Structures are given as C-alpha cells and as structure tokens.
Amino acid sequence: MGQAYDLGVQTVVYQAFSLEELLDELDDVGVEYLELWDYHCSPDDDAETVERGVDAIEDSSVTVCGYGVIDLGDTGQAREHFAFADRLGAGYVTVNYPPDRDDITEELVALGNEFEIDVGIHNYSSVHHDDLSQVFSTIDDVRGVLDRYDDERLGLCVDTGHFLVEEVDPEDVLRELGERVNSVHLKDTSDAEIEDFPGAGKLDLPTIFDLLDEHTDLDAPVVIEYELPADRASDALHEAVANARAAMD
Q1: Which of 135, 177, 219, 232 is most deeply buried (CB count within 10 A of its CB)?
Q2: Angle 240-243-246 (CA atoms, 0-180°, nearest 5)?
Q3: CB-count exposure of residue 176 (10 Å: 0-12, 13-18, 19+)
Q4: Which domains, from first to last, does the chain contain?
C-alpha cells in the first residue's frame, strides 16, 4: 500500500457556482482541500468581496491548499496574486505563461522565495489554447525551464488531463520530472468528455499514485479537476473521490 494522499478539488469544477454555493456543495463529498480559482475570489475583487470570500472559506469544511491557475503575459503581474495566496494560507500557486519568458520565470522564483510559496508550472493543451508555443504542453517545455532554474520553490503542476489530450503520457512525466513535481491536477479524458473526472477515461489511477510514491516527494494534496456541466459537478466529484481512494488502497 502506498502513501495515502490528501484530496482536494480545483474550484473550476464549480465554475457555474458562486464561492459560497460551491463551499456548500463540498460539505459531504470527501475532500478536505481546495485550490482556489481566481474566478471565485481574486485580488482584483473589491475589498468587501475578498473579505466575505475569505471568511466563507474559513467557516467552511475545506482548507485552501493552492491558488491558480494564474495566467501571466508579462512581468509585474504576479505579485498581487502571491500576496493574495499568502493571505489565503496557500502552500503553492499554479501558473501559466509562455515557456520562453525567462524574465517571468525569474520573477516567479523571487516571489516564491519571498512569500515562501511553491510555484507550480501548469501544462495546457489545445483544449484551451490555439497557440501551444505560448503554454507548457510537452515534457521538453517544462524540462527546459526547470533545468535553467534549479530552485526548490519552482516546480511542475502536472495536469494529467491536458497531457493526455496532447498524447503526452503523464506516467512518463512523473518518471522524468517527478523530483520537481510540487502539485497535481488529477484530470481524465474520455470518449464522452475531453475533460472528464479521474477514473472515467484513459487515466490509469493506480499507476499514477504508484509513480507519485516512487518518483516525487509530493506533500500537497492531489487536486481533482474536470469541466463538466454544472448539474453533474457534485455527482462526478463523489465518483472521482471514490476512484482516487480506491486507487490508493
């Protein structure tokens, strides 16, 4: 039996819900953590909205483990998000930006060390991006940056679903880059849904958890993610949690 990872959920799962509504949905689905998407609460919101959101999370059954995915196009955009993540008590932020922008990488490394928050480079696919040169979509994209910046705060957020869409085996990602993995978005792809809940499609969950044990020192919760219609969000999360727990047994 391998490590029993804590489970979280990315709030994009509940993109049709308000923050308060999604927190109510999480009362009995078996996750203890959430990665907060800025759609639900962000430093761009007015102070009253932020205060209300932070209070709602503190009064809920879940704890913030991470914040993101932060989309960055240039330097000077990240600091407010790190400060907000710090206020939330997040252990990491997930980020998306062009792989050739070393100036952004350098800023992220500096902010990660300043705020003592891990930075997880998040991979994407053609599902959301027409120009893959502007996102991390291959092992080489990620390896290039991590090799240039060998800093303990900078690592990879493995989105298993986006790698599968690009025909990159997430198992290979964990074998090759596991020592730099600091966060995980557990997502699947299937014939029915291009972004499905884990266990519904191609993803081999027991092998993924075995490889997390073998190749990473992950201490953040494994975060479940998918994008399904709102009326399926909670039922799918129940199934995803059951699938993940069974795979860890």
Answers
A1: 135
A2: 150
A3: middle
A4: 7-248 (3.20.20.150)
Q: Which residue has the tokens 């493995």?
A: 158
**Gap between the Cα atoms of 5 and 245, Å rounded:** 9
Summarised one tens digit per residue, pLDDT across range 6-17 is 999 999 999 999
Tokens representing 179 are 């020592």
End-to-end CA gap in the chain: 6
134-162 pLDDT tens trace:
888 899 999 999 999 999 999 999 999 99
Please, are residues 45 and 19 in contact by the beta-carbon 8 Å criterion?
no
HSE on the CB side for 222, CA within 13 Å? 23
- Say which residue the tokens 């100036």 belong to: 103
Low-confidence stretches of the chain (pLDDT beneath 70): 1-2
Q: Do 75 and 109 meet the contact criterion of CB atoms below 8 Å apart?
A: no
